[in-house]
Amino acid sequence: MRACPSCQRSRSPRALLDRALKGSEIESASAPGINALRTFDPPLSELAGEQITGVRRRGKHLIVEATGELALLIHLMSAGRLQLYDKRAGPRDRTSRLLVRLADGRELRLREFGSKQAAWVKLLRSSELEDDDAAGDARPGSLARPAGAGAAAGRARPLHTLLRDQHTIAGIGRSWVDEILWSARLSPFKRANDLDDDERDRLRHAIVQTLGDAIAHYEQVVTLPIPDKLPMPLRVHRHEGEACPRCATILKAVHFEDYVIAYCPACQTDGRVLKDRRLSRLLR
Ligand SMILES: [Zn+2]
User: Fold this and answer.
1) 5-135 against 148-282: fold identical
2) pLDDT digits (tens, 9 = 90+) for 156-169
3) Domain boundaries, the chain
4) What are the start-end ranges of the H helices in 118-251?
């Protein structure tokens, strides 16, 4: 999302932080405000002298990785921001819930702009990172391990139905299904149990990427007070008749009684235009 028009690199807050912080040496780290730190071992002081190796996203979490096998796992919740400042805060700054001072004089601060102080931080060893189930959030990547007979039956359904079903996989709003399937280059009518390994990987990646980008987008555009309605950064859904952002083929749609599936015939259905149910009903 929001790639720079000239260099095509992502301008998400995560990507910007990643580029700005990579290689920076940490002078000190502390949690000066209301304590956001949910772990005590290793202590934040272990970050001193280490270098930041990158900033990545996993689901709703930001992960700031450092040398020394250390990683800060950060959940911004609804109103947290991870911000990079060129100047140091005064010694009495208490608005930062996490304060990482860099050797070059910059500061990375976790600040929270809501009335509730809910954002949190864990300092983990890299080896603990993959085990840490974070806050037990619904994890978008977990589609590959459904359990039980119900799930098996579910997998025979078309992808667009399966992904919208909150019992199968929680948290994907209907509008995002079109974006995910477009991103994965999969037909909305492909059955989940017909996916080969590569297609399953693409789908899993597209779910994580699309929802992660959406979260990053909202982090960037949301200001306080939070408006009732936020425009969604959709590229395919509701864009029937417009050019596919990837290949410029005109996007098509299938209309159902209470929803519409949009897709790119070139990217997703081998050039086939899917039957519009609304039309076929009229013709019957
Ligand atoms: Zn296309």
Assistant:
1) no
2) 678 888 887 766 55
3) 5-135, 148-282
4) 126-129, 148-154, 159-164, 174-183, 197-221
β partners of residue 102: 26
Sheet holding 26-30, edge to edge: 26-30, 96-102, 107-112, 80-85
Task: Report CA(199)–ligand 1 centroid distance (Å).
Answer: 17
Q: Would you tell me how many other CB atoms lie within 10 Å of the CB of residue 144?
A: 10
Question: What is 148-282's CATH number?
Answer: 1.10.8.50
Q: What is the pLDDT of residues 104-154, one digit of tens each?
A: 999 998 888 777 778 899 999 988 876 654 333 334 433 333 344 445 555
Q: How far is CA 86 from CA 38, 76, 101, 111, 219, in A?
A: 27, 21, 10, 15, 21
Give me the residues paired with residue 261 across strands: 254
Name the CATH architecture for the domain at 5-135: Alpha-Beta Barrel (3.20)
Written as six digits, the tokens of 78 are 């609804």
Does the pTM surpass 0.70? The reply is: no
Q: Annotate 90-132 with DSSP letters as a single string.
A: PTT--SEEEEEEETTS-EEEEEE-SSS---EEEEEEHHHHTT-
Q: What is the 190 CA–ligand 1 centroid distance (Å)?
A: 17
> What separation in Å is there between the alpha carbon of 144 and the centre of ligand 1?
26
Give the distance (Å) from ligand 1 centre to CA of residue 223. Answer: 33
148: CA distance to ligand 1 center in Å?
36
pLDDT, averaged across the chain: 79
Give the largest CA-CA distance in the chain: 75
Dist. CA 245 → ligand 1 center (Å)? 7
Give the span between the Cα atoms of 181 and 168, in whole angstroms. 16
Q: How many Å lie between the centroid of ligand 1 and the Cα of residue 42?
A: 48
